[in-house]
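Category: protein sequence paired with discrete backbone structure
Discipline: computational structural biology
Format: plain text, a pair of labelled lines
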Amino acid sequence: MIEALIPEKPEYCTCGATLVENARFCHRCGRPVYETNLTEVADSVDLDTPPLIPPAAIRPAPLPVGFGNPIAVRVAFLMSLAIIVIQLIPGLNLLFVVWWLAAGWCAVLLYRRLTGLALSVKAGARLGSITGILTFVSMAVISSFSLLFTGKELFDQMIKQNPQLSEIAKEPASLAAAMLMVLVIIFAIVVGTCAAGGALGAKFVSRSGTAN
């Protein structure tokens, strides 16, 4: 816009000398070539008008913790895999409750590290519960594969130790109800323990002063 306001450069100076192309001053008298022109341009520009500043990029609100949050699901999945690996190690699998609690705790810390967001106690419990659900699903898949190969032998040993199970085995409905009840109890324990670990982890993060 300023270039359009500047008139063409004169060919001769007021002293009569021929001006050199693109020269700012006369080579004979030293007179500025654009002295009058620049003054006119400065007068035509409103210096009081502030420059236009593009609005800052609006940061989107973070997604709530849930299965719709891909980062939360990824963190929970990684923690569930870690717990399954630990439970396959002899000796360490006896402390399964401790590992479930640690899974929820570590999920909150990993989520904080990836996103920079400190979760509330409620959000930490939700992240822990997601970890617990995925852990239970992984356990169920591994147990199903194990039963395909050793299920009959294991069931025969259980009947030998507890003859009452043979009566239950003769009634498919009772057996299915018993297995469903066991699965519900295990699910509640796993999810509840992981959720408690997530709530404790979120509370620890807020107390340590790392919250935003």
Observations:
- The chain has two domains: 1-45, 70-152+160-207.
- Residues 70-152+160-207 form one domain.
- The mean pLDDT is 76.
- Helices lie at 2-5, 35-44, 70-87, 96-115, 121-161, 164-169, 172-207.
